[in-house]
Amino acid sequence: xxxxxxxxxxxxPSLTERRKAETQLEIARTAAALFAERGAAVTxxxxxxxSGVALRTFYRYFxxxxxxxVPLLAGGVREWIDxxxxxPAGQDTLPVREALERAARRALTPADEPAAEAxxxxxxxxxxxxxxPALRAVWHRVHHDSEEAxxxxxxxxxxxxxxxxxxxxxxxxTAMRVAVEEWAAGDAAPDGPRGxxxxxxxxxxxxxxxxxELDGATG
Length: 219
Prior knowledge:
By secondary structure, this protein is an all-alpha fold. The chain has 9 helices and no strands. Residues 21-80 form the HTH tetR-type domain. It comes from Streptomyces nigrescens.
């Protein structure tokens, strides 16, 4: 299989875009903490006030109170896709399966305390979801979007046909989701032998075992 050209990194966002993203993420963190504490009783006004923004500013960024957590959740589940799509220059060539595991493990291994705190907020959100169907719908929508983003990446890396690429994306994305949900249901620390990074390797291997296309090199 011919080596695919390394994709060109996307242009760096403008200062305005970066500031907007930072504001959205700060609101998302506040919303996640409130949902984890109070569940569906949280209001958009409460999220806005606690975040230090006007309610109209909140609605300029988000359609609903549940949508406010999307930047936090999406950042966590998309990081590994970006890592897989644009590996650092000079990185060793790996079978796609190993590259998937490495990217997923890296995404779920907190590099610092803010990253560990983000995982703990995600745990709180997942525990609040049974009592808030709209919040649960946001979680599944984020993962649906991530699966769609993963499909072309795996198609390029494997050279597989569209159906196989779709199956691989579904399996890998589900492995990530199940690993985080399983970890969130317990009390293990974000890192360590029972953390989500260890669980995701187990779920990836189980769900992608029947896809030999992932054994080819990434190029």
